Amino acid sequence: MYGTREEQSKGKDKKAEAKKLKEDEAADRAAFSGKSDKGTSYDLLQAVREKRVDLDKLKDAELPEELRKLEPKERKAYLEKVEKKRAELNKEAAELDKKRQEFLKEEAKKKGKAKDGFDESVLEMLRKQAKKAGIGY
């Protein structure tokens, strides 16, 4: 997380919320992130890669804690290392998602259902919201 103290605080809050997701929702989120190679709005690596941020122009207070400890020359090398690790993790997430989708498809066949965890979550959310509004769904 990078940016002003307020932006970093919002990023930490979003990260904490993501950790509270149910397992199937977290798996869907990880799969999407792995496939899209998109981070979050507070992701420094992505911002640098997309040239939205110039690493050399950021103030120390705007940097993530682990980069503050490093000299400016070491920061780029650190981000390159993180980018390589992230690519490996994204690849692994995509592979695991493929296996998960195959598993879910097989389980749905066994149970006579054709829906995955994400679809079920969305449908359940719609049902709850419809019920609150007095709509039978």
Our Rg estimate from Cα atoms comes to 20 Å
Helix-strand sequence: HHHHHH
Overall pLDDT confidence: 86
Q: Roughly how much helix do the residues carry, as a percent range?
A: 55-70%
Q: How many DSSP helices?
A: 6
Could you name the ranges where pLDDT drops below 50 across 5 or more consecutive residues?
none
Strand content: under 5%
Characterize the overall form.
Answer: flat
Give the N-terminus to C-terminus distance in angstroms: 41 Å
Please provide the count of β strands.
0
List the domain count as a whole number.
1
Give me the secondary-structure topology.
Elements: H1 5-19, H2 23-36, H3 44-49, H4 65-68, H5 72-111, H6 117-132
Which key terms come to mind for this protein?
0% strand, flat, 137 residues, mainly alpha
